[in-house]
Design the sequence.
């Protein structure tokens, strides 16, 4: 198995997540084929399922409502989208209709995007 530190960064997420540490513990990410008969996969799924069902402690997000966390994440996502949209050299006609991504987001959130809709 490969750890994230052994992979060549292929995007902003992989570069950003390399080398994360939690106190003195190093965080290592592993890629495992999902449900392809890999030994241990089914056992890992079973353990995760049991832990999720039997957890008797308070939710990890109990300091503020989950709806607030979703709102903060959505706002950060829209800010990053706006920055890329503004700096991008493509989509000039689209920018005439939607100068801000919030307008596009409001319209797009009403649709279920499928491949035929995204790429007619």
Sequence:
């Amino acid at each position: 198995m490969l750890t994230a530190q052994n992979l060549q960064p292929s995007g902003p997420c992989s570069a950003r997540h390399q080398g994360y540490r939690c106190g003195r513990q190093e965080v290592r990410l592993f890629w495992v084929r999902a449900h392809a008969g890999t030994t241990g996969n089914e056992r890992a799924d079973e353990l995760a399922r049991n832990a999720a069902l039997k957890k008797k402690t308070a939710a990890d997000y109990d300091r503020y409502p989950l709806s607030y966390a979703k709102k903060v994440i959505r706002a950060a996502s829209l800010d990053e989208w706006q920055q890329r949209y503004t700096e991008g050299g493509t989509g000039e006609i689209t920018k005439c209709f939607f100068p801000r991504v919030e307008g596009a987001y409001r319209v797009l959130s009403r649709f279920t995007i499928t491949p035929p809709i995204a790429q007619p």
